[in-house]
Write a structure and sequence with these properties.
Layout: H1 23-32, H2 38-58, E1 64-66, H3 74-81, H4 95-104, E2 114-116, E3 123-125, E4 128-129, H5 140-151, E5 156-161, H6 163-169, E6 171-172, H7 182-198, E7 203-207, H8 217-231, E8 238-242, H9 251-257, E9 262-266, H10 275-278, E10 285-291, H11 301-313, E11 318-322, H12 341-345, H13 350-366, H14 372-387, H15 394-403, H16 413-424, H17 441-451, H18 457-478, H19 495-498, E12 502-505, E13 512-515, E14 518-520, E15 524-530, H20 537-545, E16 552-556, H21 558-563, H22 573-593, E17 598-602, H23 614-632, E18 640-644, H24 654-660, E19 664-667, H25 675-682, E20 688-691, H26 704-717, H27 736-753
Parallel strand pairs: 1-5, 4-6, 5-7, 7-8, 8-9, 9-10, 10-11, 16-17, 17-18, 18-19, 19-20
Antiparallel strand pairs: 2-3, 12-15, 13-14
Helix pairs in contact: 1-2, 7-8, 8-9, 17-18, 22-23, 23-24, 26-27
This protein binds glutamine and zinc ion.
Domain Cobalamin-independent methionine synthase MetE N-terminal: 10-312
GO molecular function, one term: zinc ion binding
Family: Belongs to the vitamin-B12 independent methionine synthase family.
Length: 754
């Protein structure tokens, strides 16, 4: 080890940054709006870091990650570090504005694309690289944050994203193999290591989460040579390579052969898969991720301690850590005064996780007696959770067991289509929308007033009904064929259902960064899921009472509700999915009984839960598809089931789309020129399909001719009897005038082609 005298025993892999009360979000948005200057923004950020870093030290972490702070995104920060921002923002002189332009775009430049960070709900910005991207080192941010932390007396460990992960996550704009750019990046990383050592870093953490995905032989060879080379850098800090969100598998022995000093392994998401190899690594510090950084449950000491002592007893130097960055959990349980006291006891958010890590590290170093009380409290809480009757509702389990695995629609889709058409009598190329209409300020005001107790539920419902009436009248006037109620009553498409289901809990302040300044407050599913009463029927039947045209019922699918929640870790995900599916199934049946003939069950997150490794994907898709079919197969053949998926690049999921067996599937297509239809055809898809012909992500109003052209293209791939005409996604984020103009053109285009 280049610095043989330092080691550490308790750490986390990264810290949240949006602020315990979303201070950074507010400051950043004020900066964007011109209400706060750069100095003001930097001051808010510095304050947050100071408080957070000293608190982490005071809570007993003897190595604290620094540099996981970000004004927007850590991958974008890495692109800045390596001089790899796209050419189109280089004209923007101000550094901060250039950074935000790359993140969000401005009037002149398009932003970088955004995509999901592994299997989390965090989204990163995708660097654009090419064979001729000229990399250069810009180490100011990591150096400044390191110096700031050291000045506070914090045992700081700078964190940077590693070269393999950076290249693997980037998009090759010229089709070149980005791994070939590794030789150009390594000297910059080497230089950075030297600078960080000079500034006083004892350790540096290089994040390589890509190592938990399937790697080719060439990629593994690149891992080997990268860390061989970086470990040969003279006068560098000790290097910790951190991989998280899964098992390292074959990458672990490869890393082990190199001269790095430490490896962080995820013993939560990866289970015990890497333990045997890790136990042989007596010359490396194993940073054991035993506290779940991606979920909110209190750690079970009787699970974590044996993992830790197993390593220690094998002669391996061990530090206790979170499994991944705490970016993915809320800051603290302290504000959660509304949570059921028992449930609250089962949870650990960021602050509580740091305390757990300290307790485990002390138990490991000094024996359990040293922290007997804390361990006792933890054990009692874990036992109480597992014994809680809400975790096993026998009626739900019995119903699921009786339904067995094949709750599916038995009549073939082609026959159903005929029966549904007899009932619905729709014109060729029926027009519809995806569900939401613009969330006007009137709606937001009403929601805020209800929350503050300024209006009561009756008044709120009256106002929502007025919104529905307006949206129905508007759709009739525009001439759409299948109407929606507009979703004014929903805050969020997953949360809205979670709030109404038993087995779910909501937090007051449990914000987690989704991207940039956008935060979400995921519901917590803690027990068996029961639908105590109908959830949407009143709204939908009210909408239907206002029109003779069919109104489409609107539900969120089980996989999406699951994907956007903190999930149970005491049973397989598939079991929880089936329980949610049962609740949605009951709702579809109740809607049908109330006379609703078309029901849409949205699954925009179907692809989000896809496991990182190929070997695990088929099993996931099986249960995900099964859960959707369970939710939608309780209705008669004459009831038409729709689904909506938000994207067009289905990738590995493509085969599953047909498996959903929805009578109609609406998808994103406006930006990809209907190519997705060929992909669907190739995958044997023969159901109704509504490729989006209006890109709702843009304020632009598509012209009638343009929509006709899209539809003509679509008709080359799909027979008219199966083609629907609709926008790409919900209209929630658009302005009413844009929506009206666009939908008029959409209806005109469909009519022209009939
Ligand atoms: N029905 C939802 C809406 O229209 C679908 C949203 C989504 O796809 N994310 O808003
Ligand atoms: Zn969508």
């Amino acid at each position: 080890m280049s610095n043989p005298h330092t080691t550490f025993s308790a750490t986390v892999l990264g810290l949240p940054r949006i602020g315990p009360n979303r201070e950074l979000k507010r400051a950043t948005e004020s900066y964007w709006a011109g209400r706060l200057d750069a100095e003001g923004l930097h001051a808010v950020a510095a304050d947050l870091r100071t408080t957070q870093l000293t608190a982490a030290r005071d809570a007993g972490l003897d190595s604290v990650p620094v540099g996981t702070f970000s004004y927007y995104d850590q991958v974008l920060d890495t692109a800045v570090l390596l001089g790899a921002l796209p050419e189109r923002v280089s004209g923007i002189a101000d550094e901060l504005d250039r950074y935000f332009a790359a993140a969000r775009g401005n009037a002149e430049v398009a932003p970088l694309e955004m995509t999901k960070w592994f299997d989390t709900n965090y989204h990163y910005l995708v660097p654009e690289l090419a064979a001729d991207t000229a990399f250069s080192l810009h180490p100011e941010k990591p150096l400044a944050e390191l110096r700031e932390a050291l000045a506070l007396g914090v045992p700081a460990r700078p964190v940077v994203i590693g070269p393999i992960t950076f290249l693997k996550l980037a998009k090759s704009v010229d089709g070149s193999d980005l791994l070939e750019r590794l030789p150009d990046l390594l000297p910059l990383y080497a230089q950075l290591l030297g600078l960080l050592a000079e500034a006083g870093a004892q350790w540096v953490q290089i994040d390589e989460p890509s190592l938990v995905t399937d790697l080719t032989e060439a990629e593994l060879a690149a891992v080997r040579s990268t860390y061989q080379q970086l470990s040969r850098v003279p006068a560098r800090p000790a290097v910790l390579v951190a991989a998280y969100f899964g098992r390292l598998g074959v990458a672990l022995p490869v890393l082990a052969e190199t001269g790095i000093e430490g490896i962080a392994v995820d013993l939560v998401a990866g289970g015990d898969a890497d333990v045997a190899v890790a136990q042989s690594l007596t010359d490396k510090l194993i940073v054991a991720g035993v506290v779940d950084g991606h979920n909110i449950w209190r750690v079970d000491p009787d699970h974590a301690l044996p993992q830790l002592t197993g390593l220690r007893d094998a002669g391996v130097p061990v530090a206790v850590s979170s499994s991944c960055s705490l970016l993915h959990v809320p800051y603290s349980l302290a504000p959660e005064t509304d949570l059921d006291e028992r449930l609250r006891n089962w949870l650990a958010f960021g602050e509580e996780k740091i305390a757990e890590i300290r307790v485990l590290a002390t138990a490991l170093a000094e024996g359990e007696e040293a922290v007997a009380e804390a361990l006792e409290i933890a054990r009692t809480a874990v036992a109480a959770r597992l014994a809680d009757p809400r975790l096993r509702v026998e009626s739900v389990r019995a119903r699921l067991a009786a339904l067995d695995a094949d709750a599916v629609r038995r009549t073939p889709a082609d026959e159903r289509r005929v029966l549904q058409q007899q009932r619905l009598n729709l014109p060729l190329l029926p027009t519809t929308t995806i569900g939401s209409y613009p969330q006007t300020s009137r709606i937001r005001v009403a929601r805020a007033q209800l929350r503050r107790g300024e209006i009561d539920q009756t008044e709120y419902d009256t106002r929502m009904r007025a919104e529905i009436a307006e949206v129905i009248a508007l759709q009739e006037e525009i001439g759409l064929d299948v109407l929606v109620h507009g979703e004014p009553e929903r805050n969020d498409m997953a949360q809205y259902f979670a709030e109404q289901l038993d087995g779910f809990a909501a937090t007051i302040n449990g914000w987690v960064q989704s991207y940039g300044t956008r935060c979400v407050r995921p519901p917590i599913v803690y027990g068996d899921v029961v639908r105590p009463r109908v959830m949407t029927v009143d709204w939908i039947t009210y909408a239907q009472s206002l029109t003779s045209r069919p109104v489409k019922g609107m539900l969120t699918g089980p996989v999406t509700i699951l994907a956007w929640s903190f999930i149970r870790d005491d049973q397989p995900l598939s079991d929880t999915a089936r329980q949610i599916a049962l609740a949605i199934r009951d709702e579809t049946v109740d809607l049908e009984t109330a006379g609703i003939g078309i029901i849409q069950v949205d699954e925009p997150a179907l692809r989000e839960l896809l496991p990182l490794r190929k070997a695990d994907q088929a099993a996931y898709l099986d249960w995900a598809v099964e859960a959707f079919r369970l939710s939608t197969s309780g209705v008669a053949d004459t009831t038409q089931i729709h689904t909506h998926l938000c994207y067009s690049e289905f990738g590995e999921v493509i085969g599953a789309i047909a498996g959903l067996d929805a009578d109609v599937t609406s998808i994103e297509a406006a930006r990809s020129h209907m190519e997705v239809l060929d992909d669907l055809n190739a995958a044997g898809f023969g159901l109704g399909v509504g490729p989006g012909v209006y890109d709702i992500h843009s304020p632009r109003v598509p012209g009638t001719e343009e929509i006709e052209k899209s539809l003509e293209l679509a008709l080359k791939a799909v027979p008219a009897e199966r083609l629907w005409v609709n926008p790409d996604c919900g209209l929630k984020t658009r302005r009413t005038d844009e929506v009206i103009a666009s939908l008029r053109n959409l209806v005109a285009a469909a009519q022209a082609l009939r």
